[in-house]
Design brief:
By secondary structure, the protein is α+β, with helices and mostly antiparallel strands. It contains 4 helices and 6 strands. The longest helix is centred in the first third of the chain and has 12 residues. The chain starts with a helix and ends in a 14-residue tail after the last strand.
Amino acid sequence: TEGRALGPVVHAMMDVSDGLLIDADRMARASGLSVSIDLDAVPLSVEACAFGGDDRAARLTAVTAGDDYQLLFALPPEQTPPIAATRIGLFAPGEGLSLTDANGPVPLPASLGFEHAPGR
């Protein structure tokens, strides 16, 4: 239902199932853009906070874990999405993935998410 509501107004959209960072990087590469994500803006569930807290390490774990099953989409900043959504970053000209939080730039983790074996 949410995807159908977003389809007519977004520039790109995909489900996040392999991890937010790896899927955002894939979307940016496919679009010929860079993507910057604000870790502090990424919502964490009550369960995630109870399990690991909400500090930088916990947020990095959350954004690299798979099976999120959320929609990641690109919408112009001035446009309001037709569904409840949280703005977590920005696609822009260029290439690459960058992370920030309240303390500034965040180094990328060694693994951005789940990578399927070739041929699967």
